[in-house]
Give the backbone structure.
Amino acid sequence: MATFNFELSTLPPEAEALRDEVRTFLRQELAQYRGADRARSWGGFNRDFSRRMGERGWSGMTWPKKYGGHERSALERYVVLEETLAAGAPVSAHWVADRQSGPLLLRFGTEEQRQRFLPRIARGELAFAIGMSEPDSGSDLASIRTRAEKVAGGYRVNGTKIWTSNAHLSDYAIALFRTKVVPDKKHEGLSQFLVDLKSPGISIRPIIDLAGGHHFNEVHFQDCLVPDDMLVGKEGDGWKQVTTELGFERSGPERYLSSLQLVIELIREAGQEPGERAAALIGHFTAHLVTLRQMSLSIATMLQAGQNPNLEAAVVKDIGTTFEQEIPEAVHALIGAEPRVGSGSDFEKTLGYLVQHAPSFSLRGGTREVLRGIIARGLGLR
Ligand SMILES: Cc1cc2nc3c(=O)[nH]c(=O)nc-3n(C[C@H](O)[C@H](O)[C@H](O)COP(=O)(O)OP(=O)(O)OC[C@H]3O[C@@H](n4cnc5c(N)ncnc54)[C@H](O)[C@@H]3O)c2cc1C
C-alpha cells in the first residue's frame, strides 16, 4: 500500500524574512478590521487591497518575470498566504487568479493568453471566478452539460453554472464546458475556456446564503459567443486540465485556518488566567494547529521541489476542514451562550459568523466524501 509523504520541513531564512514585512503591511491595512470581519477571511473581496498586494509583488509571486511574476519560491509565497489568511485579510479579488486561474494559464494557456492575462493578475487588477459546478453536477463534475458548440470564430455556449463565488464582482471565469458528447465517456469531450463575464448572453443571478450574504451566483449562458482565442489548452483535454486546477485549489494552507479568528477571540476572552476547560480547549486547538501547519508546510516544500502533493493536499483538506468545523462547535459548547449575528461583542459575532458558515467548509473545493475517495485511490485502496 502507498503511504503519505509528509517530510518535516522548515522555512528558509529568505521566506521568514518576508514574514515581518507582510505582518507590518497587514497591521496597517486591517487596522479597522474587527474579529467578525477577519472571520470572513478568504470570503472577503476588496479590489483596492488586492491592488496593493500586487504593488508589493505578492500576487503571481512564483511566476516568470516576463509574465509580470517575481520568480520567488513557493515557500516565500507560502509565508504571504499564511500571514494574509491568519490575519483574515480580504484576499479573494486576486487570490483565485493567483492560486489557480493564473497557474492554469501558465501551464496550458497560449503565449498570447499568458501575455494578456498574467501581468494584470500579478498587479492585482483582474478578478477570476471558477465555473465548474452545475445544478446537477457538483461532486460528479464530469457529468456537466453546459454545451460549447463550435461556430464561425468561436464557440456558442448554452447552459448554467451554479455556486459561482463572486461571479458578480469578477472580470473573468475559467469555465468547463462540454464541446463534444461522447456516449458513455463523460470525461471526454470537455474543454476549458476563459470567459469574459461581461459578455452578451451571460446573466448572473444572486443566490443568497443562509447567513443572508450574496457570495454565490447562478451564471446563465444563452447563445453566448466565446471567441476561439479564449479556449484554454486543447479542445477535449478539459478533464485532465480541470483536475490539475483542482490540485492547485487544494494545495494551499487555507483549509485549516478559516476558524482561526475564533481561537484568537477565545484566547482574548479567556484572559491571563483562563478556567480549566477553556485552557484545555485552547491547548487542544493549538496542538492541532501546529500539526496541521507542519503538514501544510510540507506540501509547500513538495511543490517547491516540483513534486505532486495531490494526495497529501487531500489529507490536509479533509483533516483541516474537520478541525475548522470543530472550533465553533466546541467554543459554543464551552461558553453555552447563543452565537450573535449583527450585535454583540466581537467574540459573540465571530462565533455567530462561523457557526453559520462552518457547514460549507467541507463542501467548497470538493466534499469530504470525494476527498476521501481521492485519498483511498492514492493509497491504492480502490
Ligand atoms: C462556499 C462554497 C463556495 C463554492 N464556490 C464554487 C465556485 O466558485 N465555483 C464552482 O464551480 N463551485 C463552487 N462551489 C460548489 C462546490 O464545488 C460543490 O458544492 C461541491 O463540489 C459539491 O457538489 P454539490 O453541491 O452538487 O453536492 P453533491 O455532489 O450533490 O453531493 C451531495 C452529498 O453527496 C455526497 N456524495 C456525492 N458523490 C459521492 C460519492 N461518489 N461518494 C460518496 N459521497 C458522495 C457529497 O459528499 C455530499 O455530501 C462552492 C461551494 C461552497 C460550499
Notes: The chain has three domains: 13-126, 130-236, 251-378.
